[in-house]
Structures are given as C-alpha cells and as structure tokens.
Specification:
Layout (H helix, E strand, L loop, with lengths): L2 H24 L5 H7 L1 E5 L5 E6 L2 E4 L7 E6 L2 E4 L4 E7 L3 E5 L5 E6 L17 E2 L5 E8 L2 E21 L5 E17 L2 E8 L10 H6 L1 E10 L4 E8 L6 E8 L5 E7 L1
Length: about 260
C-alpha cells in the first residue's frame, strides 16, 4: 500500500473516532450523587401520605395499577423515561422538592417509618381488563328469513399503555389488556359471515393517535334492515369518556362494510 493512501486512511479513522467522542460528550451526563440521595420512600411533607419509592433507577408508586417508571437526574431536572422533565427546586438527603406539570411545587420528605413499606407490597402492577358481557347471541327475522347472530368478546394479552398523571403531578403508566371481537351470522344452518375483529382493523376509520391509545372495548348488535345486520364496535381510551363507535354492516350475501357513526 502506498504511503499516501495509508496516511489518508489513518486520517479518516481518526476523524471518525473524534466524531464519536464529540457525540458522547454531547449527551448530558447523569448526576449519580443526586440519584443516590433519592433512594428510599418519600412522603408528602404536609399530609404525610406516601408518594413513591425509589430503588435504583426506578420509581414505584402505591397504586397497584401503575407501572414502575425509569428516571434519571440530569442537571437540575428529574427526567422520566418518556422524556418528560420536572425541575428540581430543592434536594437534600431528606428533602426533595420539584415542580410538576401544573407548575406547583411538590414537597416530599424521606420516610423512616417501616410501616410505609407496606404500601408497596404488590410485586407487579395489575394489568386491567376492559370488557363487558363476554358472549351474546340472538335470532332476528327480516323479510321472512331467520338469522342467528353471535358475538364473543375475547380478552387478550395485548397490552395498551396509557400515560396519565398521579396526585403529585408525576407521569405514570397504566397497562390494559385489549380485546378481540368475534362476530358470526347464520341463515339457518348456512354460515353467512364469521370474522375476528382487532383494533388494527379500524385504522383509517379512527385517528391513528387515538387508535394507538384505545382498546376495543365492546361489540353490540344494533339492528336488521334492508341492507343487512348492523353491529357497533366501541373503541375507547381506558377510564375516559372518549370513544369512537364504528358500525360493521354484514349484508345478506355475507359481505361486510365498516363506517364511523359516532365519536
């Protein structure tokens, strides 16, 4: 290899190494000392209510449905795993004050009461199911013909994570199980229609952001008319009033059509 080529390649390698070092130095370093002071159980100064427990780089809450939250201390901020940041007002071995998302200063003090540990006896957060009646069926008559419809609501292990804020204004995550709906329609012994419905099937009928945060909560029979049998699926943000209702029409040839009917 020629000398000039060797020098050129060495220059390229050194440039890449320096670039990597610059990128690393650009990442804010974590304050390990501040994190060490946060280890333990924290209660509200005024009420004495237990707020959270910090072990390592995780925050645990007394609410059995909230997932542990990863956090870092960067500069003068408490930074959650999602990137949400809270300004630290004051921190000592026994005091931790920060500003929540409403601009209020939350004042916590470290607890030395062993009884407070009982607030965290749950090993893992409860994952909430969100279902109504599991199985439904009926027979309807239209234009002299009898149709037997059947709905089954099947809970799954598909998790939907909902972010909200607790009483201290800290971001928390709750986890819910989604559902799969099964709909069948029979004309006598003939099966006209049979299909599973997952929430992904409603893409384009429900806004993407809403669909990602929602669960397929329910499926109900609506009516029979000249078009066919109508079924309404409800997609909701868990524990909120926000829902979309999407209609599935099964015609008398066994074909389906879907449209949004309500928000």
């Amino acid at each position: 290899m020629r000398k000039g080529t060797t020098i050129f390649l060495l220059t390229v390698v050194l440039t890449i190494l320096y670039s990597c070092q610059d990128n690393k130095s650009a990442v804010p370093s974590e304050d390990e000392g501040a994190k060490a002071m946060l280890q333990g159980i924290w209660v509200e100064e005024e009420s004495g209510d237990v707020s959270m427990r910090i072990i390592g780089d995780s925050i645990f809450y007394t609410d059995s449905t909230s997932m542990p939250s990863y956090f870092r201390i960067v500069g003068d901020s408490l930074v959650m795993g999602s990137g949400t940041s809270y300004a630290i007002v004051k921190q000592t071995e026994n005091l931790f004050w920060f500003t929540n998302q409403n601009g209020d200063v939350v004042k916590l003090q470290k607890s030395n009461d062993p009884v407070d540990e009982t607030e965290f006896v749950h090993d893992t957060p409860s994952v909430m199911t969100y279902t109504h009646q599991v199985k439904m069926d009926s027979v309807v008559t239209y234009d002299g013909e009898r149709y037997h419809w059947y709905i089954a609501i099947n809970p799954t292990k598909y998790k939907v994570v909902k972010r909200s804020y607790n009483d201290d204004g800290l971001e928390v995550e709750n986890v819910y199980y989604d559902n799969i709906m099964h709909v069948s329609v029979f004309k006598g012994a003939q099966r006209l229609f049979s299909s599973d419905f997952k929430k992904q099937m409603y893409a384009g009928l429900v806004p993407e952001k809403f669909l990602n945060d929602a669960v397929l909560a329910n499926m109900e029979y609506s009516r029979a008319d000249a078009e066919g049998l109508h079924f309404n699926a409800t997609l909701c943000i868990p524990d909120e009033a926000s829902c979309y209702v999407v209609e599935t029409l099964v015609d008398y040839r066994g074909q389906k059509k879907m449209k949004t009917v309500e928000y």
